[in-house]
Amino acid sequence: MLQRFAAIAVAALIGASPLLAQDKQPPLRTGVDGTFAPHAMPKLGGGIEGFQVDLFTEAARRMKREIVIDAVSFSTLIPGMQSGRYDFIAAPTTVTKERAENMLFTAGYLWTAYQFGIKKGTPPIKGWEDLKGKSVSVNKGTPYETLSKQMGEKYDFTVQVYDTQPDATQAVLSGRAYATLGGNTTIVYAASKNPQFIADLELKDTRAHWAAPVPKNNPKLRAELQDALAALTARLSCPTLGEDSAWKPNAGITGPLRLPITFRARPAR
User: What is the CATH number of domain 112-208?
Assistant: First the structure.
């Protein structure tokens, strides 16, 4: 009798195995700007690390999916997603009206604002008019490039476009550009790492959300990502980035991030 039950159990497992294999979904494919510290940056020994890597690795775990994260230039991410190479974009992506017309976004998981960075000893920027006759460096394919070019025509300054934000920052440090315009988190982080680089004027009227873009034809993935991110920002906190440190869900980053992020449940109140 026991042998019969064992045989039935084995047969049931064998019959179910194709169904179990069918239930296993392929890894999520995504990408980040691998030089946009502290969100993604090269890791000693190879690979990348950063806020985005930790955040979306944990989100994928909650979705019961593996994840493959490529480190590329930001300007290639949206075309890569639209061509089908990526399922979504894990890089911090500013939600704009133009972008929302062409892709789906999760709810914002982090506030951002545009901020100038300048070389130490340079007179602070008080407004766009201070840039007349000067050069501003930006990361290619970003809203910072778009806004800088618009304002450059209005206030008579030139815009230098670079493949990465570190290259744009280096242009300032080397004297090729007067200032760089980027996201407040990466400008503040760069200033914390280089005493010759100063986080300067933040453009308060540019405050916006960073969110995860998904192709417009995949609302199911958008909903799954949204549920995972909502669980992290609403019910979880990071011991290394807690209430008294730099990162708070949906509240922006006020100082250098401490990595790696470890997620844990908040204590019940």
Answer: 3.40.190.10
